[in-house]
Specification:
By secondary structure, the chain is of the alpha/beta class. It is built from 14 helices and eleven strands. The structure holds 4'-deoxy-4'-aminopyridoxal-5'-phosphate (PMP).
Length: about 400
């Protein structure tokens, strides 16, 4: 293929995306993330669940870490990119979640790639829930294991896939709190099934940590699975913890194995010190203010009730996320713009983030939403309902 035929293909592809309402456009945010209420417009689109990304205690800790350790980490953690701050944070995170050990990656995406492809390989089986986040899907593909995709919240299908396998080693991978509809995986049941069939359960707690369970310890902890030898969790530091980065949390043997084998750990520059500092401060705030998690869940419930009171089909939230099903991608874009006109920023989910015909608006709650933000949400969702007739 010559360069010109690539360019012609790009143009053609762009035209098709435009016609299908699937073009995505970058828009620069015009200010910092808070603190307090989500600024202007009201932020119901981001993942700053506890409002900590703009908390002065978190931003000051980020600045201190950068001054102490540098603007970047300077290398892979196996070479020069590891600091005492990274290791302290790993101990604090593992302790908070009740796990033996943790390993910090430079994003949640890379933590998922690392844990799945570091543990599973050719000749293994991965049973993967159909609504898993894209990073888990990519991780499964990267592993070269055989992948059995099962239905949503279907532990019996998981059991069937495990029982009929020919592979010796098997893994079950699932989101804890699903990122689009905000519902919860049946973790206790999945762990039982895994145990009965000698499989390891890998759980993505991106939307669980800081939001779900006792003091925001996540869904694995809430299911009584913290510290289990056959359960491994991943977290992102970019949502509740107001920073960036990710981590694998679980048995020490798993963490040690990943240090030697996870390519997204070995061949990636270590997480920037400022991010480690911010996440450490946020974790300390979460530990000392355990009510934050309950507050974000209550606010999500209130957003859900606001949407349903307006007559919209919203999903009942288990964590911070609720979404309003629309269907058509172009209409979804139009409705997100309508919310923006009413001073509220909402998520606009279209394929490939969701299946064809399942486009939706996603609303994410924050712990620091107040009466003014709820009033704006009521106005915006009322306008959406009116437009839908
Ligand atoms: N897993 C889930 C469920 C997510 O929603 C996200 C982020 N959108 C990730 C993993 C990736 O985390 P990060 O943004 O830290 O790469």
């Amino acid at each position: 293929m010559s360069t010109s035929s690539v360019l012609a293909w790009l143009e053609e592809h762009e035209r098709k995306r435009e016609a299908a309402g699937l073009r995505r456009r970058l828009r620069a945010r015009t200010g910092g993330p808070g603190p307090g209420g989500g600024g202007d417009p009201v932020d119901l689109a981001g993942n700053n669940y506890l409002g900590l990304a703009g908390d002065p205690r978190v931003t000051a800790a980020a600045a201190r870490a950068a001054l102490a350790w540098g603007g970047g980490s300077t290398g892979s953690r196996l070479v020069t990119g590891n600091t005492a701050a990274h290791e302290e944070f790993e101990r604090a995170l593992a302790g908070f979640l009740g796990a033996e050990a943790a390993l910090v990656f430079s994003s949640g995406y890379l933590a998922n790639l690392g844990v799945v492809s570091g543990l599973a390989g050719r000749g293994d089986l991965i049973v993967s829930e159909c609504l898993n986040h894209a990073s888990l899907i990519d991780a499964c593909r990267l592993s070269r294991a055989r992948i059995a995709v099962v239905g949503h919240n279907a532990p019996d299908e998981v059991a069937q896939a495990l029982a009929t396998r020919s592979e010796e080693r098997a893994y079950v991978v699932t989101d804890a709190v699903f990122s689009v509809d905000g519902d919860l995986a049946p973790l206790a049941r999945l762990a039982e099934v895994c145990r009965a069939h000698g499989a390891v359960l890998i759980v993505d707690e991106a939307h669980g940590i800081g939001v779900y369970g006792e003091g925001g310890r996540g869904a694995v902890h809430a299911a009584g699975l913290a510290g289990s030898p056959d359960v491994v969790a991943t977290v992102t530091l970019s949502k509740s913890l107001g920073s960036q980065g990710g981590a694998v949390v679980g048995p020490r043997a798993v963490v040690e194995h990943l240090v030697d084998t996870a390519r997204s750990f070995i061949f990636d520059t270590g997480l920037a010190p400022a991010c480690v500092g911010a996440a450490s401060a946020a974790l300390e705030i979460l530990r000392s203010e355990p009510e934050l998690a309950g507050r974000v869940r209550a606010n999500a419930r209130r957003l859900y009730e606001t949407a349903t009171a307006a007559g919209l089909a919203a999903s009942p939230p288990k964590g911070a996320v609720t979404s309003v099903r629309i269907g058509d991608p172009e209409l979804t874009v139009e409705l997100a713009a309508l919310c923006a006109q009413h001073g509220v920023s909402v998520g606009c989910f279209r394929p490939p983030s969701v299946p064809d015909g399942a486009s939706r608006l996603r609303l994410t709650a924050r712990a620091d939403l107040g009466p003014e933000q709820f009033a704006a949400a009521r106005r915006a969702l009322g306008a959406v309902a009116e437009r839908l007739g």
